[in-house]
Specification:
By secondary structure, the chain is mainly alpha-helical. It contains 8 helices and 4 strands. InterPro entries: DUF1985.
Length: 201
Amino acid sequence: MRCKERDDVYKLALVYFAELVVLGRDKHLNINVNYLTLVEDLDAFNRYPWGSVSFDKTQDSLFSAPTKYMKSFENEEGREKGKSRVTGTSRKNEKGKKHKHGEVQRGGWSFKGFTYAFQIWVYELIPRMVDLNYCKVVDPTAVPRILRWRTTTSMPEMRKLNNYFFQSKESVQLRALRPSEEEMRQSYWSWPQDRPAVVSA
């Protein structure tokens, strides 16, 4: 698709970001044409409840994907001895096709929705992720918290994560997440009818 007008390029970029980043649509699928209509009115586009839609997609994906993965992992483990992982190199898959940014071997799954938010939540919740060299803190006081973290170049190996989270005899250490006063003053921290936030310890 070619655009001659700068405004059209900008609008397409908004739809692209919403679909592939916020909603996590598979890049091989067509975009929702309704969003192309919506973006013609930028005020309406900005008022659209992207957060709620993204949250629902992310939540549904998180609820369904692990079950699918564990079945795949259990079947694969007997044959491959737990070699399933996400690699960062360009290799040929079983059909002989190369993956430019890495290869997902058998035993994996794809998340939908805004999965980076879930990734940051894991970093915040499980301090050991830093020790495993999967992430690092770049600014411990940044708001929102997504700005505090940076993912390293180390690719998570499923066997290592599985051993730590599910097979270890020691309990996984979790950090209690509580909003700071500065966070609660942010515009995104709002609740219907001014009800107080309920935050679990």
